[in-house]
Specification:
InterPro entries: Acyl_CoA_acyltransferase, GNAT_dom. By secondary structure, the chain is an alpha+beta fold. It is about 35% helix and about 35% strand.
Length: about 170
């Protein structure tokens, strides 16, 4: 398995991955993912290039030529804390869960974030009831720093979110 930053050439596969994630787990669709899907509905080309020019990186993990998972990191979501990088949109296809896919992807993301200037922190947020996400981020040294209430973008229901961070 190989993790790498996605290029515009892979935008179509990335779009399908995002659609699959929302179909499978609508309650976990973050505002960032829903915004992406709106852009993709208008046009597929250009989103990954726009992300790159704005400092957002989107990684994919590949099993040979098949896209098995995706994750993104951006500074834009943490503007109030400029040294913070926000990890969002982590999704691994069901057939690849329990394989090295998430490990390979997380190691690539953490290594890239560790090369950023200053002493950045990597943060993420997810619904409190997402036990698998909590276990994954615990495994990579993230610690819970805050809990907040949020309205789920797809259902409108109030949910408790966990915010975790990791020094790099």
């Amino acid at each position: 398995m190989e993790a790498r930053v996605l290029t515009e050439f892979e935008a179509g596969a990335y779009r399908l991955m995002r659609l699959r994630s929302v179909k499978e787990l609508p309650s976990l669709a973050s505002p960032e993912i829903l915004r992406e899907l709106t852009v993709f509905a208008e046009r597929t080309a250009g989103l990954l290039s726009t992300y790159a020019s704005q400092g957002t990186r989107v990684w994919g993990v590949f099993d040979d030529v098949s896209l098995a998972g995706v994750v993104a990191v951006t500074r834009q979501l943490a503007q109030e804390k400029p040294k913070w990088l926000s990890l969002w949109g982590l999704y691994v296809r069901p057939g690849y869960r329990g394989t090295p896919a998430s490990r390979v992807m997380m190691e690539a993301v953490i290594a890239w974030c560790g090369r950023q200037p200053g002493e950045p922190k990597l943060c993420t947020r997810f619904p409190r009831d997402n036990v698998r996400a909590h276990q994954l981020f615990d495994r990579y040294g993230f610690v819970e720093i805050q809990e907040q209430m949020s309205r789920a973008p797809t259902t409108g229901q109030i949910q408790t979110m966990v915010i975790m961070s990791r020094g790099l």
